[in-house]
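Slide 14.
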Amino acid sequence: MNKLSIKSRLWITGEEGTFLGEGRASLLLAIDKFGSIKKAAKSMNMSYLKAWKLVNSMNETSSFVLVEKTLGGKNGGGTSLTENAYKAIQLFKDLSSQHQLFLEKSFNEQLKKL
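Slide 15: predicted structure.
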């Protein structure tokens, strides 16, 4: 057979819907990089409203806050990730890697049977 591969995407969900997936993890990392939901959204070619809704959804779906906003002042406001956000991103990355490795192993074993 030609070189075949298997691809899949992983989502962590709650009763209210999606908690974390590839796009949401990328958004969190962009917020961490830019310190702003608006700048993170712009860097991903996403509307601020969509980014804000995703952040709000993650914060509401989770039992812990992922993103905190600070109000303006002398240096202006901003947005930052909590320690739990970093842990959630790492958990997602680890699970995604394990998921892909499992799929590749299983897929290759099944291909041998063809």
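Speaker note: The chain has one domain: 18-64+74-112.
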